[in-house]
């Protein structure tokens, strides 16, 4: 038994007062004459015994009365040790897309919120955080409406991030009991390589389990082939559970233009194809319907008229190979000798190739530096006998590059930087028996630029990055067979394609997306991204012939967005959520070390409430005191 005010127990010393009174009570005797006392002897003896009994009974009742009053004011109680410690409660509520799975017809997130509202004591203060939101030091009544308005998030913290973030909300007071409650479906992707429990913290895991794990997901879509007048759109689907087929609908804006059925193989995969007109603008949406997760039931994409990339070759060398690579369907390619070059056209280009000029005039150097500073891409191919001082005047501004003496030695180009963006998707695997091109002579080079292609002795043949590429030797047929090698097409094609970052048919939310819009903005104008009343200004850089937009996770909602200059729509852009949460596989939480498992939210808070329960006893001691008062009255009346 414990006391709320133990210092009041000193009042029990007051029990000595009735003891002293009863033990040392002074009595005055009065003589009364009787004619004969023989008959009173028996009565006197009986009276003395009765008075003695009455005295001790009164002493006992008064001691019990005073003891009851003192103990009642000291407020005794029974409680567990944990009930006396101040408690801090931090709750993590998983609001990721996987919580759309249903239990008894209710999404897991909704079920968790409603159970929290019913289970958390009204006066309990706690902190709750989700994957994106934080509610600090609140009561359940204070955030009830905000909880009911919580929407699903595309972000998902892993267990290590949950534990670390939860620990930041606890105080530094070592005397408090710290409880971290994790409410989640514990999908497999929540696991982390390091899941050590927090020292000094009691971690409670409450697993929300759906009734079924059936789900169909629209995973991705891409243009598989392009023929004369048509494009073939291919969509990939996956399914969890015993699902044989599902209908797939294709919309252009709000108009249904095609519908087919996807049949799943034994691995739960399916492919469907749609044929679309080549030059038609399509604001597309693929849709399915299933009883699993809903976020992956639609996939947005858009097909637009492809913008042509402006490419220019400067030089009198043969540029036939460039014209074959920069085809008319994707590029606007021109080739001019230096004498016919119009310098005002340089700012309109996306890619400029210095095609084996013998010398570079100062005026061209100035314009090229301005061109690259404005985001243009540059390729430098030196002539067999070039004027090194003029070349170095240009190249020194890029990676501190300088060409040195000519080297006359036949070399094979044997080293390819497979990880560089220029060649990253060209080869399925790193090749070792490639038909390597060769050169007869080349220039030595000093540079800080990474090597893309190198000779067998590791000296560079092609260096560059970020839109500036420099060859160390001529690729003319009299010096090299590079033009006839398999490397020529991916090298120059990727240089051209990367000079203008055209939108793909859709992008993934949460990933950084860069794209170029071919437009010239008026002064003080900016591009805006809009969607059904929502307006967003992305990070952008305006250049003479384009505007570069950067999306770095600021958008959270999937759909088709308009890119506008004032009210003029320049292009549409589609975003979709990642499909990582569509695979409904879950962790076994009983295997996680340092954590306790609870069958439900209600059971957890009932157990915590039981640990906090205090049984107060002061009322019983008041009843004891009143009972002793009543007993004393009875003793006074009945015993004489």
Summarize the structure.
The protein has 640 residues and is of the alpha/beta class.
Low-confidence stretches: none
Average pLDDT taken over every residue: 86
Tally the structural domains: 4
User: What radius of gyration results from the CA coordinates?
Assistant: 43 Å
CATH level-4 homologous superfamily of the largest domain: Class I glutamine amidotransferase (GATase) domain
CATH topology label of the largest domain: Rossmann fold
Q: Tell me about the largest β-sheet.
A: 9 strands, mixed
Number of helices: 11
Query: Which structural class fits the helix and strand makeup?
Result: alpha/beta
Instruction: Enumerate the strands of the largest sheet in spatial order, edge to edge or round the barrel.
Output: 18-17-19-20-25-24-23-21-22
Helix fraction bin = 10-25%
Number of strands: 35
Measure the end-to-end span: 39 Å
CATH architecture of the largest domain: 3-Layer(aba) Sandwich
Pfam families: BatA (PF07584)
Keywords: Membrane, Transmembrane, Transmembrane helix
InterPro entries: Aerotolerance_reg_N, Class_I_gatase-like, Double_TM_dom
Protein name: Aerotolerance regulator N-terminal domain-containing protein
